[in-house]
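Okay, any thoughts on this one?
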Amino acid sequence: MNVKVLAIITVAALIVIIGLASAIGEEGELAFEPIKPEVVDHTEFFEEANVTTYEGSKSCISCHEDEVYEFFHSYHYQMASWADDVTGKGRVLVGGRVAYNDFCMAMFLDNGTKPFNWIGYVVLKKAPEGYEDLVGSFTGLTGCSMCHGTGMGLPPSWEASEEQLGNIDCLACHADPELYVSGPKAIAKGIKNVTKDEKGRFRYVVNLDITDIAKNIIDVPTTANCLACHAYSGGGPHLKRPNLGPDMYTGKTKDGKIFDVHIANGMSCVDCHPGSGHKFSTSSVDTWDREGERPGEKVRQCSECHSSDPHGGVTGWFLNTFHDKVACQTCHIPYIAHGDYPTEKYRDWSATTFHPDKKRWKFSVPDPETGNTDKWYLFKNLEPVYAWYNGEREAYTFPDRVEPVKDDELNLDPVNGESAGVVYYVKPSGDRSDPEAKIYPFKLHRALIPYSPSEGKPVPVKVGIAFATGNVKLATEKGANASGISWDGKTYVTYVRYMQVNHGVQPAENALECLNCHGPTVRRMPWPELGYGHFPEIAFTLILIAVIAVLVGVPYWYIKRR
C-alpha cells in the first residue's frame, strides 16, 4: 500500500468518524394512520329533538347521555383528578381546580367548591395618563373559565345534576373550527359571549345559527379545536406551555420552517392524546391529568410508534445502545420557542403592565437586567434545562403550609416588596441510579407570588381587579380576605415550576449532535448536577483525541517506517 492510498483511507475514516459523532440515524415509520375528523350532519337529529338553539350539552344529552356523563366526570370538565405520583403524599386530589398555580393563581377556594377567579365581565376601570378614553372598555377577559372547564359558565360541581349535565360546551371539541372554537378566540370573535341567566349568574352563550351548527359537527377534535385554548393558556399566545402555541396549528412557522414534525406531517393532537371515554390523559411532570387507566386512554409514548431502538445504521446502534437513559425529547427538541412566538420564563405578580392594544393591565414580565415593567420581556430560542424524571414528582398542594427555601440561583426579587425565598410548585423526581429515570428537557418557569409568612401559605390574588385597575396590591388584599389568609403587604416567594418539553419536535437533521452535550468546551448538559461529574465530556474528548491520534499516527508511523 502506497502513501497516497493510505492518505485517502485516513481521510475517509475521519469523515466516517465525524459523521458517527454528529449524525442522527433514520427514525422509524409511523405505526398507525393519523386520525381524520369527519363531519356528522345533525340537521335531522336536531329537527327530531326540536333543538332550535344551542345551549351546550343540554341540547345534546337526549341522544348522547353516556357521552355527557363521561365528559362530566373527565378532567377537562372537573379540572381535578386523583394522582398517586406525588412524592410523599399518597393518593391526592390535584389539578387547576384545587391548585394555586403560577399562571391563574387560584381559580377556586375551599377545595374547589368556591369560585374565585372563575367567570365575569372584566371592564377597564383605570388607565395610565394618555389612555383615559379606554376606561369602560371590555378587556376581552371573562375569567379562567375562558379556557378551563370547557363549559357554559357555571362552576363545575362534584355531583352530577340536571343543570350540571347541561353545562358542557360540546362544540368546543365537536364543531368544525372554521365555524366555531372555544377559548379566548371565541370571545375575541364575539361568537361566545358572557351574559347572566335568570338567577343573575354569569353564563356563556354561543351566537351561531343552529342550522350552521348542525352542518358542522365533527366526530373527533382537530388540532385547531384543542389549540383554541391550549395555545393561548397563561394569558397570551405561547406564554405558558413550552412549544405549545399558534405555531402548532400547522406545525410550521410563517416562513415555512418545520416547527413540529408530527403536526407538519398531518398528525393531530388526538393521535397522541387518544381521548377514549373523553379521557385525554397526560404524563408530563407539571400537568395534573392522570385519569386514563387503560392503554387507549393514556398519552402515547414515542416508542409506541418509533420502537425502543429507533435509530438505524452504525450511528443508530451507538445512539440506541448508549442513550437509553436519555428521553427522545432531549435530543429531538433542542429549543423552546424556536418558531414565531416567544414564551415566558418568569412573571412578577407584585407589579402590573398596561397593554393598550388589549385595553387592560396584566401581570408584569420585567426586564431581567433593569426591572423595567413598561413592556413584557419574552424569550425565543431558549435552551431547555435538563433533569431526571422517573414518573414521580414533588409538588406543592394548596393550601398546605410550605416554608420557602434559600436558592440564590432561582430566587427572583419582586419589583414591589421582598422575596422570602423559593417554593417548588412542581419538580421532577429521579436520579442517575434510578432505573426508571431518564434525562428530560424542561422549561423552568418562575413566578413571584404573594406569600403569608405567618401562615406559610401563598395568598390568592383577585386577578380581575388587577387587570381592571392595575392595583395588584388591592387585588391581593381582596384575595387575602376571601381566603382567610393574612398578608403583610410586602412578602413574596419565587414559585418554581418545571414544565416538561414534549412539543416542537424537530426533523432528525436538526436534532442535537454529540458535541452539543459532550463537547470539550461549550456544552448544554449539566453533567455534574445530573450525577456524572465531568466524566461524560472528558471521556468523549479523550476518545476523540485517541481516534484522531490513531488515524494520524498510524500513517505517520507507516511513512516513517518506509
Notes: The two ends are 11 Å apart (CA to CA). The CA atoms of residues 231 and 245 lie 4 Å apart. The chain has two domains: 1-23+515-562, 24-512. Residues 24-512 form one domain.
